[in-house]
């Protein structure tokens, strides 16, 4: 135990001067194509704002030296530390993946633009500190991220002009209402080509999931294939995208790695308590903040405010969605050729909130609160 403590202490002293390694999988050619298709959207303040929002929120190694030490805080005992990047980095990565896919599907120019705009705007309603702050600011402002995204895309009068991207979408040849329809998870669009795109972006292996897990995997040293390894592994029939049985092992491996990321890190008891404590604290110290102010506040200001006033380690789990367990049904190693709309029957998930709730009420929470208050 003593040796382990010394090891962590030595590493800790090195961490503050150690530069995080930047990761990126968007090449110049892809970036130029994205610009060509959706340049006006890329220039919008509401999109460039995403460059200031850390992808993993308080679970990022970026903020380690700004936070007090305690037993539930993430310990970055890796020889190499990777920067998880920003929501803008992620959105461009998703755009690159989906652009490659729709080009392989031979979509027309209009639907290529629609696909890329979907990717660029899927996180447009992200608050500073990403999913960490989302449940707090969403509750305070009485605005869900889904509703906020719709407001930004449709140009709600409740938001300032800097958060109105309707004109830029139309300038790019995109009907905002069609884009909103594409975001709707409940039912697919009537247009047959848009249905194919809808199936792709709402599948368990969507471009959003592929890029996000690759990015998160780097941080936690869990290997995921890069975007290039998925190229031309999703095919298209007359009705919707599908995976050939010869490629199914790649996606099963992906799902198992995703399961590892969540079970060992994001949804581990300590991480759930740590991130919930920050969310509860943000809700406590920013209880009167206006919607537009909550979107523009600096992440370091939030962290400094919470640290200064004390982290609220309550007994309440506060996440942007229920913690989930990811698993491959029947432990299959390969699948038959299958449409993406049916893939969820095998690459599955279930809520684990009921199993975790009793663990929130332990004496460790009181100990953790006292550690924070003593700072």
Please characterize this protein's 3D structure.
- With about 375 residues, the protein is mostly helical.
- The protein has a single domain, classed as Hypothetical protein af1432 (Orthogonal Bundle).
- It is built from 17 helices and seven strands.
- The protein has helices spanning about 1-15, 30-40, 45-50, 85-105, 110-120, 130-140, 145-155, 165-170, 175-185, 190-200, 205-220, 250-265, 270-285, 290-295, 300-310, 355, 365-375; strands at about 20, 80-85, 235, 240-245, 325-330, 340, 345-350.
- The strands form three sheets. It has a three-stranded antiparallel beta sheet. A two-stranded parallel sheet has the order 1-2. Strands 5-7 form a two-stranded antiparallel sheet.
- Strand 3 (about 235) and strand 4 form a beta hairpin.
- Helix 4 packs antiparallel against helix 5 (about 110-120) and helix 4 packs across helix 11.
- The two termini are about 25 Å apart.
Helix/strand class: mainly alpha
- Please write the string of helix (H) and strand (E) elements: HEHHEHHHHHHHHEEHHHHEEEHH
Supply the CATH superfamily name: Hypothetical protein af1432
Rg result: 21 Å
Identify the CATH class.
Mainly Alpha
Q: What is the correct CATH architecture?
A: Orthogonal Bundle
Domain tally: 1
The largest sheet, given as strand count, sense and whether it forms a barrel, is: 3 strands, antiparallel
What would a concise description of this structure say?
With 375 residues, the chain is mainly alpha-helical. The protein has 17 helices and seven strands.
Summary tags:
7 strands, globular, three-stranded antiparallel sheet, 17 helices, 6% strand, Hypothetical protein af1432, mainly alpha, 375 residues, disordered N terminus, two-stranded parallel sheet
